[in-house]
Amino acid sequence: MSFDWLKDPISEDAPCGPDLEATDDAPFVDYYFEAESRMPERYFTPGIKGPDDDFMPGVSFDPATIKHATEKKTITELLKKSRDLRLVSLLARMMVLAARLQDFADAVTAMADLLETFPDRVHPTDQSDRRSAIDELGNNAIVAIPLQHINIAGAAEVTYRKYLAATGQSEPRQGEVGLNPGTMTSELSSPGNSKAVEAAHAALNQTASALKRIKSACMRLDNPFTPTLGPTEKAIADIQRLIAESRTDLKPWSDDSPSAEAEDDEVGSHASNTSPIDEADSAKPAATAPTPAAEPLAGAIPNRAAALQALNTIEAFMATHEPSSPSLLLITQARLLVGKPLVEAIETLLPEHANKTKITLGEGTGFVLYMDRLKMLAGEAGGRAQSLESEDAGAPPEITSRVNIAPVLTSIESFFRSKEPASPIPVLLFRARTLLDKDFTSTVSDLIPPANNE
Length: 454
What we know:
Type VI secretion system protein ImpA, mainly alpha, TssA-like, elongated, 6 strands, ImpA_N, two-stranded antiparallel ribbon
């Protein structure tokens, strides 16, 4: 649903109409505060043990509980009386909770339009109330996590949340055990799902662009500020990277995309009354810090030789420039496991349980292969492996800073998940990526458990 009409003034004297909260407008007060009270505190409620030690499984928010058509109609009627960021923010959250991705994108775009068209007149004019309404678009529990649960492949029911569970990046919940990441990426590239995937990608692009416009508009206000939108920007970037793994023609949105540059020009034409000081502030790097979507997208890894070469390149860079990084240790371990059998990976990563490893051949048959036998078979199979010398690794990736590392690691992860799904390398590299930017205190907290947990 387009909200272009929101850019039209309600009247010449009061282009944004009255502040419905300040005037104690009954329809606004009755609806708005009740609707806000229905916002969930968390998207997923973990399971608990009942009074009889019965386990009550966790529960995810049900999008069907949001009557999206009714909510949209009510908010639209109120917006016709008053141009109010609180109402638009509420609408955006309602739509993403209802798993209505395009409606969510339209609501976020409407907020960008209002801030650009009526920067100092749109309600609420109180700086604290205005910032709160805008910051809600970056709410992790109500916006970012629901985005992860939205289906992006039509009837295939592919979500980023399921992908995280399938790849071991998040603990699987009930109904998420046994998911296959390869199946998900295949569904994303399936011609039958192309329209749904392209629509989801376009809506995410629209949202990312609108969020950037919102940040830029906030920095041009008389009292400029940078809204907290990071969790939502990251969720969008993560989902778009997943799409790009299967659809290389659908690139993640970035600050320097042609559409973003065109929007910047358009915003500049609307902001001709901006003072030189405001323009200088909005030009500062901190004003529009690059979002996660702006990371360079690394090229696909074609074969194991290219993966090994990329790991060697990253390892050499980090050993030279960031020898204290815990990511370096994980990248080195990943390199050492390239081409190695499963039993070696288990001995390396699960040393306390390695001797208990076994493969049973049918429940109740008694047929079993224990670790000693598995190691012998791994050695036998290894002797038949072909050399990688015949594989063309191509040119090594260019690593000149930490910014270049994460996209290359993501490409290596994608290669092993697709070509060698039993490999632990993607798990190691994902963890390496999460540690790349952490400082010493955060790193120690991650690596050393508290005394009472030892």
